[in-house]
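Weekly sync notes, structure subgroup
Attendees: PM, AL, DS (notes)

Item 1: joint prediction request from the bench team. They want all two components modeled as one assembly rather than separately. Inputs as received:
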Amino acid sequence: MTTLTISPDQDSAELSRFVAGIPLAEIDVSRPSLFQSDKIGAFFERLRREDPVHYCAESSYGPYWSITRYDDIMAVDTNHKVYSSEAKLGGIAIQDMHSDQSNLELEMFIAMDQPKHDAQRKAVTPAVAPSNLLLLEPVIRERAGAILDALPVGEEIDWVKSVSVELTTMTLATLFDFPWDERARLTRWSDVTTAIPGAGIVDSFEQRREELIECAMYFKGLWDQRTDQPGGTDLISMMANSPATRDMPFLEFLGNLLLLIVGGNDTTRNSISGGVLALNRHPDQYDKLRRDPALIGSMVPEIIRWQTPLTHMRRTALEDSEIGGKRIAKGEKVVMWYLSGNRDETAIEQPEEFIIDRKNPRQHLSFGYGIHRCMGNRLAELQLRIIWEEIQKRFHFVEVVGEPERLLSNLVRGITRLPVKLHAH
Amino acid sequence: MIKVTFIASDGRTFPVEIGEGLTAREAALFNDVPGIDGDCGGQCACATCHVLVDPAWIDQVGRLAEDSMEADLLQFAEGTTAQSRLACQVKLDARLDGIVLHVPEQQY
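Output from the run, pasted for the record:
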């Protein structure tokens, strides 16, 4: 493989020329550094144009197919009978699940096929159904307002730490009716769940396992307190009192809890940060928002498209099949790059632009499609809407005053630091 | 043209007309009927164009087919009944002229 060195100050034309010179067969879009440096777009652009269903024979994750166009991604995502999410076959990310024997083999319905997926998803879906979320809206709004009110105006702060993390943790705590003073535990468990041992969060699979069991025990305590107290609108009360979920085996109980914790945490956190960045890079759109705050309704899905907080989902082919004229063999790994599909000019007009009043803003791939489509999508949109309504009430300008720092990950498109200065009205 | 009446969960009615051969999803979206999202673009992939077919019309429309993608998706939607369908899968022809469709309180 060619060793790629990309300098941080390379401009986009230079980067495109550089990417154009790499032999197609040597392109490997799974390298986390490409996402951290935010250079990945130029690679996807070339694949969409020249080889939209691309085979990479060698990578740190083994051989895999990249699906880079909107329509092909939609075709894979909606064909769950051929393209499996099953954890035992590798699961839902380019990094195989259940591949390490020392790891906890969590059962979560996102990494299951029918019929088990359907039964489990159905059991927890009511917890994030729109009618329940409406009940939580005033609480989320009040707490979001309190966090924003406490921020210093005119000083440099890290938006990620001061706002994005705080707000998503707060919302999670509200959803679970989690003991307020201990809510930082939720952030910790979320980070631990997706952590790779040795990369800074946990040192070993053993430590990860211990912390997650501690998480399960903590929730078991809340669960027991709320059992037989029907009427609670928090997630734990609903699950503890629903005939479909109250008797789940341990690894399913833990797996599905973690799915709800992780699903609502990283993703929304990064969309909150991504929205600020997008508006700063498109000042005309920020002006549009100031003139008409009602545009928040269409800006929210546009933020989610523009950020694409999860870069991909992966499937495993259960039989020989064909995508975009390429033969995919049974057992092969198929990666749907949502980040690429969301920049596909054949499906989305001016995809590189952030346009807060797009005609069909909800037609994006960030939530996936088909039976595994994000079940928290309404919650994500609700949080983003409340947050932006509250920001607009208080601040004329959330000004980005330095370069964002990004997460070293090929799955979570994360912003780890975003220096900003707040300007009041 | 085919006449379609959408009835919102609060009782408001939206009588619209649409060309034959299009779907009930398009009838709603092209005429700004509130409460139908249709996120996926009409590809039976998201279940955000859920409607409850009026009992008087369900036999003409046909009920949800078991083991279909539409059924797979609708099982996770809120407030489904035996009359539930995805509007993108209801193709409007002359037999359905005058059809009445109820819009649920929320799309999922």
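Discussion: Chain B has one domain: 2-102.
Action: AL to compare against the crosslinking data before next sync.
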